[in-house]
Amino acid sequence: MACSCDHSKVTLKKEVSTSGHSHAQVAQAKENSSKKVIDPVCKMALDSSKAVGKETYKQRTYFFCSKPCLEKFKAEPKKFIQS
Predict the structure, then answer these.
(1) What is the pLDDT of residues 5-59, one digit of tens each?
(2) Whole-model pTM?
(3) How far is Cα 20 from Cα 74, in angstroms, rounded to an integer?
(4) Which residue range(s) make up the domain with 45?
(5) Are 39 and 3 in contact (CB under 8 A)?
(6) How many angstroms separate the Cα of 79 from the Cα of each of 25, 49, 72?
(7) Residue 77 CB burial class (10 angstroms; 0-12, 13-18, ≥19)
(8) Is residue 11 part of a domain?
(9) 33: in domain
(10) Which three-class secondary structure state does DSSP give residue 70?
(11) Can you tell me the distance from the alpha carbon of 73 to that of 4, in angstroms, rounded to the nearest whole number?
């Protein structure tokens, strides 16, 4: 399923580490801590570690593929979750 969000406006920032560990270690740690999630707005599947944003609502954390999806959710969370 294709996402209808405008991903062309998403800017990715390069991570720079000065804490004495390698980028490979950071990437491996992120890979191990990620999980498959579904954006509740557009229903796109993504890794939680690659989510553009996240929001906690009623003690549950939701992950988003884009800032527009996150903003739509923040405006009307009840519209996008199942009770």
Answers:
(1) 665 555 444 555 555 655 555 555 555 578 999 999 999 999 999 999 999 999 9
(2) 0.62
(3) 37
(4) 23-80
(5) yes
(6) 39, 25, 9
(7) middle
(8) no
(9) yes
(10) helix
(11) 15
pLDDT number for residue 34: 82
Q: How many domains does the chain have?
A: 1
66 token code pair: 């884009």
Residue 58 included in any domain: yes
Whether 49 maps to a domain, the answer reads: yes
Structure tokens at 74: 């923040």
What DSSP string describes 7-41?
Answer: GGG---------SS--HHHHHHHHHHH--EEE-TT
Rounded alpha-carbon distances, angstroms, from residue 12 to 26, 52, 77 = 17, 9, 26
